[in-house]
């Protein structure tokens, strides 16, 4: 028996004996971590030179078992030099992640249009605070479910998460089209769609960290821009179709768009490599790191105030007669359209000067713009403020995954778990933020909402500055 055949048989035997969940790939083989190798790990018997090349690419020493590209005894996920950092397969993952963001955060960013419609038509007897709980729970579940989907992804069930999340998204959207009361809307839109979004979000970020290193912020920024584009397209579709075909069919049309766009990630996204060992759902040891702890705390506080303009700017413009109702409905689309650039340009800069050096000034700007909303007294004024807020707030949403990846440089095999638990904590901020805003609106009016949102973001910027200092020091010119 030749050496290549022996290694192949040893690998098959080792895979059968290991008590590890199997992942089936749609292709017969998966590309090597190094772009220079044209062979897959799971392949037909090769000659000796091919085996040596393969072992060199994967960091496998002679005599080790060559396993399927599912899980190896060598922690190759930690081998930064093996990450392709480009190439067709890598950029296809970015494309797929773009549409996962499009149909997760893009759906969340659309809720402002639903909030305005529910207050005036579908749920006129419900308070703004009660209605905002629907969007808050939806966003909360997107991040909380990530605490589970991260380790599930690490265990090798990316395909299950992708298909399951897609089904829940479409099911929730179709059920929403039949809703007539508050509790029906809560179950369909908040819980069903929220859980579906959560199954997709964390894996979409975690998979990119296995394809990119030095360009990770750019890759995540391009993918995250899908949430802004979704936040532009879905509100426009909702606003234009609603008076023509009604709420039910408008919601179904959005469901059909979800079906079409979710086909792309289901076809093109593939796992490149997984950690060598199973882990617990939580990595509590990460909270012993001051940079990580302050980072999570900073984003938790920031997300409490971040979504005030997204949820309340439309009804604010209508109630204060700053714009006509037709233009007011487009404020959310304007905010999300500028957010596209706020997720790409700053993320590109983050690769050059560091993610902390980008997100901190953008968070300060977002807080100041919240306070500026108090002075808005015309259509032009609120449109300009909303446009700038979309740009700077986009950075606050897109850079947290990149920062967590940077803070996990020496624990790359735990990135999925750390992303999940981080966003589970941040989710609490999203959950309580906009309902608090609704209660403030009922008690004190719109000016108090903008002051509350701005204060939370300014405090967030201070805490993130502490995280940066603990991580890289206090020199302003240090890349961090």
Automatic annotation (TrEMBL):
<feature type="transmembrane region" description="Helical">
    <location>
        <begin position="131"/>
        <end position="150"/>
    </location>
</feature>
<feature type="compositionally biased region" description="Polar residues">
    <location>
        <begin position="34"/>
        <end position="47"/>
    </location>
</feature>
<feature type="transmembrane region" description="Helical">
    <location>
        <begin position="382"/>
        <end position="407"/>
    </location>
</feature>
<feature type="domain" description="Major facilitator superfamily (MFS) profile">
    <location>
        <begin position="90"/>
        <end position="471"/>
    </location>
</feature>
<keyword id="KW-1133">Transmembrane helix</keyword>
<feature type="transmembrane region" description="Helical">
    <location>
        <begin position="447"/>
        <end position="467"/>
    </location>
</feature>
<dbReference type="InterPro" id="IPR036259">
    <property type="entry name" value="MFS_trans_sf"/>
</dbReference>
<feature type="transmembrane region" description="Helical">
    <location>
        <begin position="249"/>
        <end position="271"/>
    </location>
</feature>
<dbReference type="GO" id="GO:0016020">
    <property type="term" value="C:membrane"/>
</dbReference>
<dbReference type="InterPro" id="IPR011701">
    <property type="entry name" value="MFS"/>
</dbReference>
<protein>
    <submittedName>
        <fullName>MFS general substrate transporter</fullName>
    </submittedName>
</protein>
<dbReference type="GO" id="GO:0022857">
    <property type="term" value="F:transmembrane transporter activity"/>
</dbReference>
<feature type="region of interest" description="Disordered">
    <location>
        <begin position="1"/>
        <end position="65"/>
    </location>
</feature>
<keyword id="KW-0472">Membrane</keyword>
<feature type="transmembrane region" description="Helical">
    <location>
        <begin position="292"/>
        <end position="312"/>
    </location>
</feature>
<feature type="compositionally biased region" description="Basic and acidic residues">
    <location>
        <begin position="49"/>
        <end position="65"/>
    </location>
</feature>
<feature type="transmembrane region" description="Helical">
    <location>
        <begin position="358"/>
        <end position="376"/>
    </location>
</feature>
<dbReference type="Pfam" id="PF07690">
    <property type="entry name" value="MFS_1"/>
</dbReference>
<feature type="transmembrane region" description="Helical">
    <location>
        <begin position="90"/>
        <end position="111"/>
    </location>
</feature>
<comment type="similarity">
    <text>Belongs to the major facilitator superfamily. Monocarboxylate porter (TC 2.A.1.13) family.</text>
</comment>
<feature type="transmembrane region" description="Helical">
    <location>
        <begin position="216"/>
        <end position="237"/>
    </location>
</feature>
<keyword id="KW-0812">Transmembrane</keyword>
<feature type="transmembrane region" description="Helical">
    <location>
        <begin position="419"/>
        <end position="441"/>
    </location>
</feature>
<dbReference type="InterPro" id="IPR020846">
    <property type="entry name" value="MFS_dom"/>
</dbReference>
<feature type="transmembrane region" description="Helical">
    <location>
        <begin position="182"/>
        <end position="209"/>
    </location>
</feature>
<feature type="transmembrane region" description="Helical">
    <location>
        <begin position="327"/>
        <end position="346"/>
    </location>
</feature>
<dbReference type="InterPro" id="IPR050327">
    <property type="entry name" value="Proton-linked_MCT"/>
</dbReference>
<feature type="transmembrane region" description="Helical">
    <location>
        <begin position="157"/>
        <end position="176"/>
    </location>
</feature>
